[in-house]
Design a protein that fits this description.
Blueprint (H helix, E strand, L loop, with lengths): L16 H6 L2 H4 L3 H13 L15 E5 L2 E4 H10 L7 H24 L6 H23 L8 H10 L8 E11 L5 H9 L3 H10 L5 E8 L5 H9 L5 E6 L2 E12 L4 H31 L18 H23 L4 E2 L1
Parallel strand pairs: 5-7
Antiparallel strand pairs: 1-2, 3-4, 3-6, 5-6
Helix pairs in contact: 3-5, 3-6, 4-5, 7-11
C-alpha cells in the first residue's frame, strides 16, 4: 500500500459484514478484543492477492487513500442486496459509502497488522472454506423441481396448526432479568391470581420489569411449544427463559385465524423446495464421504466412539433428571418452565 503502510491487495471482494461475524461465533463470544478481530476479519477477507498490486476491474468510482473502489464492486453489492432497478441510484450511493467505510477498516486493519493475527487468519481460512464449499454445492446441485399440487395439499393436511387450524395467541408479558428470578418471586408467581398481582409484588420489592403485549401465531411457534401453549387455559401464568431475560406470560385471548390452501400454497412450495435442497446436499455429502478415505487420527473423535469417561455422562444424566423433576414440580405448581 502507498505511503509505507505495507502492501494491501488491490482487488477487494466485499462480503456482508453480518454474515462474516455470524460465521465466527468464537470471536463474538470473546469480548472487546475479539470484536476488533471480527471487524478486522471483515476487512481482511477482502484481500484476494496479497503481495502484488493487482488491477481492479471496472471504472473507479472513489479513491480512499489511494485505494480505488470500482463500479464492479458496487454492482456486486447491488446484486447481493437485490435492489430493484428503480432504487439502484439511491441505494448505490448508500452502498458506496459502506464500501468506503470497509476500505477504511481494511486499511487500518492492515496498518495494525491485524490481518496477521492468528485468530484472524484462522477465521479467514474458515470463511474461505465455507464460501468455496457453497460454490461447489451451487455448481453441482441442480434447482429442485417445483412441488406438485398433490405434494402441497399433503403438506397442508399434515400441518393443521400452521394452516387450517392456525390460531392467534394474544399474550401479556412481564420481562425481567433472569438473575432476578428468585425463589421469593417464584413463590409470588405460584400464589398470584393474575399478571397484575405479580407486577404489584415486583413493584413492592423493587424488581425491574417491562410490560409487553405480543401476538403470536401457532404457525410461528415450534410444534411442541405451540401445542403446550394451546393446551393452557386463559389466564394461566407460565415462564419462558430467553437467555438473560425471563418472560412471565399469560394468554389473554386465543382466536381462530385459519389460512386456506390457496393462500398458503406459495409458502408451502418454498418450504418443500428448501427441504429438497437440504436432501440433495445431504445426498451429495454422503456420496463424497463414501468415495473419500477418512481416518480419525484421534480415535476418541470417531462418530461412534464411546464416551471417554462414564462419570461425566452419569453427571449429565443426573443433571437432566434433576432438571426434568424441577420442571414437573414447577408445572404442578402452575408455572410451566418452557424453553
Amino acid at each position: 500500500m502507498q505511503g509505507g503502510r505495507g502492501t494491501v491487495c488491490k482487488r477487494i471482494s466485499i462480503l456482508n459484514q453480518q454474515n462474516v461475524i455470524s460465521a465466527m461465533p468464537s470471536l463474538r463470544r470473546s469480548g472487546r478484543t475479539s470484536q476488533v478481530l471480527a471487524l478486522a476479519l471483515v476487512a481482511a477477507l477482502g484481500l484476494s492477492a496479497c503481495g502484488d498490486k493487482a488491477k481492479k476491474s471496472g471504472q473507479a468510482l472513489v479513491s480512499v487513500n489511494g485505494e480505488e473502489i470500482t463500479i464492479s464492486q458496487l454492482n456486486e453489492e447491488l446484486q447481493r442486496a437485490n435492489v430493484p432497478p428503480a432504487q439502484q441510484e439511491q441505494a448505490g450511493k448508500q452502498l458506496l459509502e459502506s464500501l468506503v467505510d470497509r476500505q477504511l477498516l481494511l486499511n487500518e486493519a492492515v496498518k495494525e497488522k491485524l490481518d496477521r493475527d492468528p485468530k484472524v487468519v484462522q477465521g479467514i481460512e474458515r470463511a474461505k472454506a465455507l464460501i468455496i464449499a457453497q460454490a461447489y454445492m451451487q455448481k453441482h446441485l441442480s434447482a429442485p423441481a417445483k412441488p406438485t399440487r398433490a405434494e402441497v395439499e399433503d403438506y397442508y393436511a399434515k400441518h393443521p396448526a400452521f394452516f387450517a387450524q392456525r390460531k392467534m395467541l394474544e399474550l401479556r408479558e412481564l420481562s425481567i432479568a433472569s438473575s432476578d428470578m428468585s425463589a421469593e418471586l417464584k413463590a409470588a408467581i405460584d400464589s398470584a391470581k393474575s399478571l397484575d398481582a405479580v407486577a404489584s409484588w415486583m413493584d413492592e420489592h423493587k424488581v425491574k420489569y417491562e410490560r409487553l403485549q405480543v401476538s403470536r401465531s401457532s404457525g410461528d411457534l415450534p410444534p411442541e411449544l405451540g401445542s403446550r401453549l394451546l393446551a393452557l387455559p386463559k389466564g394461566q401464568l407460565f415462564i419462558v427463559k430467553e437467555g438473560a431475560r425471563s418472560l412471565l406470560i399469560v394468554i389473554a385471548d386465543t382466536r381462530d385465524t385459519p389460512v386456506t390452501l390457496e393462500q398458503s400454497a406459495p409458502q408451502i412450495e418454498q418450504v418443500l423446495m428448501a427441504q429438497r435442497n437440504k436432501d440433495a446436499a445431504g445426498a451429495e455429502l454422503k456420496r463424497l464421504r463414501g468415495a473419500a478415505k477418512i481416518e480419525y487420527l484421534d480415535k476418541k473423535m470417531e462418530p461412534n466412539a464411546p464416551p471417554a469417561a462414564a462419570a461425566p455422562a452419569a453427571s449429565a444424566a443426573a443433571s437432566a433428571s434433576a432438571s426434568a423433576s424441577a420442571t414437573d414440580e414447577s408445572t404442578a405448581r402452575g408455572v410451566a418452565g418452557l424453553k
